[in-house]
Structures are given as structure tokens and as C-alpha cells.
Amino acid sequence: MSTERTEVQVRPGVEADLDALTAIYNHYVRETPITFDTAVFTSEERRPWLLSHPEDGPHRLMVATDTDSQGVPGNAQRILGYATSSAFRPKPAYATSVEVTIYLAPDAGGRGVGTLLYEALFEALADEDVHRAYAGIAQPNEASVRLHERFGFRYVGTYREVGRKFGRYWDVAWYEKDLQPTDL
């Protein structure tokens, strides 16, 4: 009996990924309270979001793909998920803070993909002028809490009933991670 083996690779996101990234995000819009968006997006509507995450600088997009272990030419890489660092708030004094997120394809959980994405994202940010990372986690979401705590995030507070989706209110727990020591 042969089993298909896959290898997960993480790389910067590119414009060719837009349709797959939009499909992953739309799953969370339609099916979960993990994002507070309530209407699905077209790829064109998501293009500005993708373009706001270049391959360098503090705002990054890392994509996890799987490929078959035999490396057969022409086989498409399937996107398993993505991680981003984005502007925390628009005011200039917040420039050294980022908000980080991870979204996985519905069948990609439990394989260590989130860990690989965050390892790559934080490695990419290591040489950037970024002091803190923040993550807002809609509750309940134990898997996300565990992932963030494993990466050194610490709980700082909860916004109670801050979002309404699917006919109910949801809390968001906030976590922060030091990325660079204070040296002012």
C-alpha cells in the first residue's frame, strides 16, 4: 500500500496566491466567529490586503504549501494556510507594533502548519524595527491560545462582547509578544 507523503514549505505570499488565500479566508467569514467580517470577499476585493504585505518590511505575508514528496514537476502546490503581520493601529506612534494572524485551510489543522508559519513570520521580522506583536483571539479558541502561548505570547486582557456575528456576541482575548528589547 502506498501512502502519499507531503512536505510543508513556507514562503512569502505572492499575487498568484490570491484566489486560494481568499477562499481560505472566506471559509472563516462564512463558518466561524474567528473573523468579524460578515460578508465574503472576491479576490479583487482582497487584492489591496495582499499588496499591503510586501516581501520585506514589518508587514509580511507567509504562505504554507504542501507538495508531494516525489517533487513531480507540474504538480500544483496547495496552500495550507497563511500568517500575516499587519499594522496594529494607523497612528504613527504604533509603527513598531504589529498585529499577527494565522488562517489555515479547514483540513490543515493539527499538522504543525501554524507553528511553521509563525516560525517563518517571526524569523522574517527579526531584523525589522518591530517591538511588539499583538494577537486578538475570538473566544473560545483553545488551539489558537495554545499556539500563541507556545510562541511566548502572554495574555493581556479581554474585550467582552466586542463583536456580534451569527446572532450572538463574542469576546476577544488579547495577547502580546515582545519582539525586541526596549533600548531607548
Strand and helix map with partners:
Elements lengths: L5 E7 L5 H14 L11 H9 L9 E8 L9 E10 L9 E8 L8 H13 L6 E7 L3 H9 L3 E12 L2 E11 L6
Parallel strand pairs: 4-5
Antiparallel strand pairs: 1-2, 2-3, 3-4, 5-7, 6-7
Task: Kindly summarize this structure in a few lines.
This protein is of the alpha+beta class and 184 residues long.
Structure characterization notes:
- The protein is α+β, with helices and mostly antiparallel strands.
- The protein has helices at 18-31, 43-51, 113-125, 142-150, and strands spanning 6-12, 61-68, 78-87, 97-104, 132-138, 154-165, 168-178.
- Strands 1-2-3-4-5-7-6 form a 7-stranded mixed sheet, with helices on both faces.
- It is globular and about 40 Å long.
- The N and C termini lie far apart (61 Å).
- 23% of the residues are buried.
- The model is unreliable at 1-5 and 69-75 (pLDDT under 50).
Question: Which structural class best describes the helix and strand composition?
Answer: alpha+beta
Strand order of the largest sheet: 1-2-3-4-5-7-6
In percent terms, what proportion of residues is strand? 25-35%
Percent range of helical residues: 10-25%
Uncertain residue segments: 1-5, 69-75
Mean pLDDT over the full residue set: 91
How many runs of DSSP E, i.e. beta strands? 7
Compute the CA-based radius of gyration: 17 Å
Overall 3D form: globular
Please tally the helical runs, counting DSSP H or I stretches of 4 or more residues.
4
Order of helices and strands: EHHEEEHEHEE
Q: How is the biggest beta sheet arranged?
A: 7 strands, mixed
The N- and C-terminal alpha carbons lie at a distance of 61 Å
